[in-house]
Amino acid sequence: xxxxxxxxxxxxxTDQAIASILSSARQLELAGxxxxxxxxxxxxxxxxxxxxxxxxxxxxAKALGATTYLVxxxxxxxxxxxxxxxxxxxxxxxxxxxxxxxxxxxxxxHFLSRYVDVPIINAGDGMHEHPSQALLDxxxxxxxxxxxxxxxxxxxxxxxxxxxxxxxxxxxxxxxAEIVLCGPxxxxxxxxxxxxxxxxxxxxxxxAVRDADIIMLLRVQKERFGGLPLFVERYIAEFQMxxxxxxxxxxxxxxxxxxxxxxxxxxxxxxxDGARSLVLRQVRNGVAVRMAILRRAFGDVN
Length: 302
Ligand code: ASP
What we know:
By secondary structure, the chain is an alpha/beta fold.
């Protein structure tokens, strides 16, 4: 049994846990720093590059008074061949009371949670889930629109390789959004609609965007192809978010992207920097949402 404070994915979260994390994040955002986890020790174990997720988990832990220990695969004994489990057990033996992990293998946090008796927080596992990103995306939409139920959300891009897509689709459809998936067959295969009941898929970005309230863009995960895919030009022509394409959405439609954005690929500068872009607000909200996730990990709420 995973530790009850673990966050392995959106699928395993109860509705009550989702509501509680979102409301706790709201309170923490208003209150700012809060020494709820003073003296606690949190290991950040990153086997893949990260900017936003790593820094915001670190800022969240520190805002709660906890101490963090950062272990990067490239600069640790992992390079020498140490197994994931041995690394985690080593960190726990040194006093880590929770582990935030990012790993290229889908299921790595679930594996750890079976053998390690501390909360495991999934900070992105392979092509599987990125639950803290989905929670901060939901938090950001709620902050601006006050609801998710009934909104039309177009999810455009590399759905197949994206753990953000999977977590967002699970969470936002559970919260009542109407979700339309869109991308070329290489990135958005027909089978993607089986992720959840009620999903639609179109290959036409103009159609996906029509009347959308939210346009959720995804990065083409070139590291999971082993190189840039061959269809870059076609992707740009057919799926890139441009001001012209955005004009087909609702006049108050908002653009989201989990970052890192690849400007000129998924979107143009005008869209990335435009008044409707929520990208930096998503990043800012990530800290409060991760504070709520860490408090829950230590049983401080829920
Ligand atoms: N930062 C997100 C992730 O780690 C999205 C991305 O990399 O495209 O999954």
